[in-house]
From TrEMBL:
UniProt-listed InterPro entries: DUF1836
Protein name in UniProt: DUF1836 domain-containing protein
Pfam family, one: DUF1836
Lineage of origin: Bacteria, Bacillati, Bacillota, Clostridia, Eubacteriales
Top-level taxon: Bacteria
Amino acid sequence: METERAREAISHWAQEGESFTPPAWEDFPTIPLYMDQVILYLGESLELFQREESASLLTSSMINNYVKHGLLPHPEKKKYSREHLGALMAICALKQVLSMQDVDTLFGQGPLDRETYALFREAHQRAVRETCQALEKTCREKEDLKQAALLLAVEANAKRAAAERILCELGRQEKPAGKEKRD
């Protein structure tokens, strides 16, 4: 009975995920937002990815650290623009699988622009949809949920390792000679 309740909850989550679409650049608020508004907006936009309802994927301390470390441009008069929202959307998703150093290698050349965000958005939406469709099938066919979680985790680990390898090599090429970073 407990497994059936879990299966129903997972199936419901997967159905929500199949229709998940990150906000388009044009759908971001046109007026700059204050920190609390940014956190609320992105929290609602990324609700599907929160492990628990009370857990937040983004806090003001995180945003301040991203600015401090150059992952995010400084806000103008304490307000955050579309460029900030796009970057934060990507950072919130990617920080779950990549180090901040790797995220910086991806986006460290300057603010996240409309085209880069569109690429992120399309890839993210496709990956979530494919995963949720497979998970919905697992639930519908009453396959073993622990086995499904194991396979998803192993696949995620393999893809994370591949992404890290690419970013490690790209990071090496971007460093000036004699300026190797210590791990």
